[in-house]
Amino acid sequence: DSGVTQTPKHLITATGQRVTLRCSPRSGDLSVYWYQQSLDQGLQFLIQYYNGEERAKGNILERFSAQQFPDLHSELNLSSLELGDSALYFCASSAASGSLTQYFGPGTRLTVL
Amino acid sequence: DQQVKQNSPSLSVQEGRISILNCDYTNSMFDYFLWYKKYPAEGPTFLISISSIKDKNEDGRFTVFLNKSAKHLSLHIVPSQPGDSAVYFCAASEMTGGGNKLTFGTGTQLKVEL
Asked: Are β-strands A10-13 and A108-112 bridged in parallel, bridged antiparallel, or unpaired?
């Protein structure tokens, strides 16, 4: 158990809909990262937050947005969902912004029908 | 454009023998390289890392070798154990705008057989 929690574990929705994925980092960690893993793909970095502020951005679509709240939990919002958005979404956390070691949650499996 | 590549999707090794997992990269700006291990229905778990200024790092049964001129790294597991059966991801780190971005390969499924 990494100490990072993600909810929900599974999510099934329809094209065009909007969903919110939630992540609680390990106790004491200030940095949160979001990754997407599509079928047969490696993990694709989406975005990083540190203590509420955006720190690094990857290939995140404009339809996706994220934020980190004062209690340090983070939410990833996915809107106008398409079939290709079906994937595993992982959240990770680390103590500091530049920490090498990231601790991953178990992921949220999103299925768009 | 895949900056981190793991060209072997799977590897099968006998228990007690050496497992060698390979990874190639293209971006010279990567400053650290990491290996993560992933079991089904779990998130990846950090295994070992190496700085771009070193050529070897060892931690118990796990050793990572970096050949910077060839832009190649490898993970050696000796001796391999059945519990090592998992997907192994190679990842490369670069600092960007005060943050840290990890670029992952597509993974290699290791199966250690009795």
From this structure: parallel
Dihedral sign (CA B50, B68, B52, B9): negative
Beta-bridged to residue B67, according to DSSP, are B72
**Residues of A whose CB is below 8 A from B29:** none
Instruction: Return all residues near A86 (Cβ < 8 A) that are at least 6 apart.
Output: A38, A110, A111, A112
Q: What radius of gyration do chain B's Cα atoms show? A: 14
Cα end-to-end distance, chain A, whole Å: 31
Alpha-carbon distance of A103 to A108, in angstroms, equals: 15
B50-78 tens-digit pLDDT? 999 999 999 999 999 999 999 999 999 99
Residue (of B108, B36, B74, B104) closest to A101 by Cα position: B36
Q: 């939990």: which residue's tokens?
A: A73
Q: What is the structure's pLDDT at A101?
A: 86
Asked if B101's CB is within 8 angstroms of A106's CB, the reply is no
Residue of A nearest to B105 (CA): A42
- Taking an 8 Å cut-off on Cβ atoms, the answer to whether A97 and B105 are in contact is no
High-pLDDT (> 90) share of chain B, %? 87
Contact A55 B89 (CB under 8 A): no
Residue B17's nearest CA partner among B82, B72, B100 is B82
Structure tokens at B57: 């790092």
